[in-house]
From TrEMBL:
Family: Belongs to the chemokine-like receptor (CMKLR) family.
Source lineage: Eukaryota, Metazoa, Chordata, Craniata, Vertebrata
Transmembrane segments: 34-56, 68-92, 104-126, 146-166, 186-209, 229-246, 275-295
Gene Ontology terms: biological process: inflammatory response; phospholipase C-activating G protein-coupled receptor signaling pathway; positive regulation of cytosolic calcium ion concentration
Cellular localisation: Cell membrane
PROSITE patterns with a match to the protein in the record: G_PROTEIN_RECEP_F1_2
Name the record gives this protein: Leukotriene B4 receptor 1
A single GO cellular-component term on record: plasma membrane
Amino acid sequence: MAQNNGYPFLNDSTSTSGGNETIVQNQVATSVGALILSLVFLLGFPGNVFVIWSILARARKQSVTTLLILNLAIADGSLMALTPFFIVYLLLKKWMFGNVMCKILFYLCLANMYASIQLIMLMSVYRLVAVLWPQRIGIFTSQKTILRLLAVVWVLVMVASIPAVVFRDVRNTVCDSYHDTNGQVVLQYTLELVLGCLIPYVVILVSYICILRRIRQTKFQRRIRSEKLILAIVLTFCLFWLPYHIVNMVQVTWALCPDGPIRKMMGTIWQRSRAVTSSIAFISSCANPVLYFFAGKSYIRREGLAFMARLFERAGIDSATRKSQQNSQNSRDKDKETDAVMLKDKDRDSVTNSSSNVKTAKNSK
């Protein structure tokens, strides 16, 4: 039985109805998908290249946030470089690039999904530590530490993406994932749901709930630009990838259902939705440069082409600035308390001296 790999798109031979229909035969789906991917490539590829250049060539200091954004731009830019292959696939409605490229390209697509969400999760955790435990932020600010952590993330991403190579193959001019049993379908898509959705989304959600609660509790209830920027990245990614993960859940349900009308309905849903939701997911990789542009447009007149580098530098020092502000405020509060105590002691001394003077004057009389 031929099944869909889920991650990339428009390549599924399906037997939900017992036939040999493929999604690339759907004229509307392939046209919409090709249009979306063309726009994504034109906007996302140069945008991510510009982000990478801004950090490597223009940034004076590479903070933790800057390094995470750099790796995210590399992952997204790599995916954007692959989109022309998929555009041709959709327009011709058949795979023209051979079996090896079929495996490699879809492996890289799946790796990008994992890399993007894991990097965004690290951003959220870093902001959480910076806000809740600023005294411990030095553990993460070491460049050697963050580089080691990023290396571990990339290794895990490459290992987790192996199913795309194992199951992907070209049959009847369709680059597809083929499973011998429904158990393989459940295993593959459950892995994607757990590693690419459930775990990171829960960590991100909990992190930002804690961050927002702490900001409301502190005396400095100001909107910090870097917090808004990272939150916008998180929300954008979740918004564009959520439909894809919903379709994955539908396909897992389809694989677990016994034959009948419900299974047939589930098969129709994921078959017809895979093209659009997978193309929408690609939009997330071109959205970040747009967010950076609007977040950093105030720097354009002053910094020119280096405006993004200044934005990322600012995002990296906001936590330290906030910490120093809090420390300064705490220091001022302590000084005020000290002054108050000294003033009270001075008042007591004055009262004591006055009483002594009165007694002395009476005795003299």
